[in-house]
Amino acid sequence: MSLKGSISAAALALFMASPAFAQAPVKIGMITTLSGPGGYLGQDVRDAFNLAVELEGGKLGGAPVQVIVEDDALKPGQGKEIAERFMKTEKIKLLTGIIFSNVAGAVVPDILDNDGVYVSPNAGPSNFAGKECHKNYFVVSWQNDTLHESAGQNARNLGYKKAFVLAPNYQAGKDAIAGFKRMFKGDVAGEIYTRLDQTDFAAEMAQIRAANPDVVFQFHPGGLGIAFMRQYAQAGLLEKTPMVVASPSLDSVILKAVGDAAAGVNVSSHWNSDFDNAANKKFVAEFQKKYNRLPTYYASQGYDTALSIAAALKATGGKVDDVAAFSKAMAKADFQSVRGNFKFGPNQHPVHDWFALKVEKGADGQLALVTKGKVLENHGDFYAKDCKL
Amino acid sequence: MPLLIEQALNGVQLGFMLFLLAAGLTLIFGIMGVINLAQGSLYMIGAYATAAVAAKTGSFLLAAPAGLAAAALAGMSMEYLVVRRLYARDHLDQVLATFGLILFFNQLTTILFGRQPLFVEIPPFLNGSVPIVEGLRYPVYRLAIIAVGLATAIALYVLIARTRLGMLIRAGATNRDMVRALGVDIRLLYTVLFGVGAMLAGLAGVMAGPILSVQVGMGEQVLILTFVVVVIGGVGSIRGAFVGALVVGVVDTLLRAVLPGLLRQLMSSGSEADALASGLSAMGVYMLMAIVLLIRPKGLLPAHG
């Protein structure tokens, strides 16, 4: 609760300092994951979102805003309770912040049923992208499958024919393998669903070695990925079998924790810290200045989410009360994304470019993600065709 | 054949890892009658202290004792400040208090180290792999886990069965008041014992650091499996924890290793077989626990009688 208190106090202080005192601030409710192994994901989204607000002097799109942050602890039930409190007690219309698809699955329908607007900075589950799409539901990050479609395309571009695929046994894991296979089109030598609470992957390593594939694709976000990558290298597989992953399996935080075991891994992502555009340069520099750490792609999405909301607020004159008008303004995506090209597709999920990255030693001898080239251009998602808005 | 040997080794190694965690838990429960949910936090403290000291000094040999000391110290202060007040209460109060401690330690770790996972390097002398049989190389570090687990099991046996401290511990478990009447400072004894249990968890944390991710909440991930080990082995029995941990480790690993291939041969659809196999292997150890409880409700090697 002190977290919420201090952030609203900070927002309030900024608000007091600003001369445009007449307008009551637009409240934005952020439900995100701040505790447990997934905590750094939510932290980066929150910090980058707040950074965007701060850079505009406590405003977004000229309208003073108050960001209220609560931790869902990766529990769908807790997320639902927070959403209810935000909407009923705080009268918040505009919500954002959810990291994990299972939390989004429980919370988002409640928000939309209550005539609220939800802008996702991360989770983009397939079930809300197709038939169930909604005019007040926006995803700034990506549709889950597309992350792994980019990895599949990357593996194909790199000329691999036989892949071994692994992902945890839950919805996003299944989406990952489906997405990878959709674009890879080669042989699948083996397909393993690991457990979400698994820490030891020795049995899987032995199976990969026995199958002898050209390439390994794996999706293990957060701490799972750290354990997986390290054990992959320790099993002596990294020198033998290259690995292709999408960005959640190897963000800059994981890279730091994995160390040399990640050298040479192929990553595909919609954003990287080295992107050469003005918006991104400003974002990366300001983020490092304020928080003294490299932003992950989660941070880039939190920042883009704030910018997209800012653009909509600017168009509506700082009003969210007329939800239809606000959503219409949101859909235009009239902002400069840190990832470069960006627009919303027919289902209000992004249409953007995907890039191949590789883990290499930089000039300072530290491993870093280096952008190599484009994998997919103006790529939408598979489910957009089922969406009738 | 090398594949099967490798998988068996993997199972044994996982078993020893679980033993280190379960031994402390079962020791504390068997002798002091306290259910310590915060055992996972002590594991986390061991791992974090090791990571922090290793990052500062660059030496694993300095970092490992630091990890053990931090866990033991945290355990003893936990006993002195909180758990001591709960011996006379029922298990539900103990569960509630130690669950609170989990939240406390997770938040404290977040404040001290942040949410980003930490990196621990494998000590250079344990890096690499060695040939076991023709066509099979096995990572040295995993062999080291087996060796440390085995050494710990022997040391615990000697401590409990052959030393004066062990005698007092056993006596204290049987009749606390009588031991006190004979002039032994049972409160100090319990504090020390709690420290030993905490150190075992810390040791597991030290060993886990280089192969897993050192992060907030890492203890809760292993806690459930640890309880399964304790229940299968017999609550309060170190021997039971040893056998239970090896059984759980081997069964879990072999199910994950063998089941997908087996089901793929039996079923027509490959991806359905994979999904079923992963579901069944996830249930495996819990089904094992249910079977053990049906046949031997007190576990494989119960503590008393």
Structure, explained:
The complex is a heterodimer of chains A (389) and B (305). Chain A contains twelve helices and 14 strands. In chain A, a hairpin with a 5-residue loop joins strand 13 and strand 14. In chain A, helix 2 crosses helix 11 and helix 3 runs parallel beside helix 4. Chain A has two domains: 211 residues, 3-Layer(aba) Sandwich (Rossmann fold); 160 residues, Rossmann fold, CATH 3.40.50. Chain A is an alpha/beta fold and 389 residues long. The longest helix of chain A is centred in the last third of the chain and has 20 residues. In chain A, strands 7, 8, 9, 10, 11, 12, 13 and 14 form an eight-stranded mixed beta sheet that branches. In chain A, strands 2-3-1-4-5-6 form a six-stranded mixed beta sheet, with helices on both faces. About 1% of the residues of chain A have low confidence. Chain B has 305 residues and is mostly helical. Chain B has one domain. Chain B has eleven helices and two strands; from the N terminus they run H-H-H-H-E-E-H-H-H-H-H-H-H. A two-stranded antiparallel sheet of chain B has the order 1-2. Chain B starts with a helix and ends in a 10-residue tail after the last helix. The mean pLDDT of chain B is 89. Classes of the chains: A alpha/beta (389), B mainly alpha (305).
Query: Which residue ranges of chain A are poorly predicted, with pLDDT under 50 across at least 5 consecutive positions?
Result: 17-21
Q: Give average pLDDT of chain A, whole number.
A: 90
Overall number of strands of chain A: 14
Percent helix of chain A, as a range, is 40-55%
Q: What is the CATH class name of the largest domain in chain A?
A: Alpha Beta
**How many distinct folded domains of chain B?**
1
- The shape of chain A is globular
Estimated radius of gyration of chain A: 20 Å
Neighbour order of strands in the largest sheet of chain B: 1-2
Ends distance of chain A: 39 Å
Helix content of chain B: over 70%
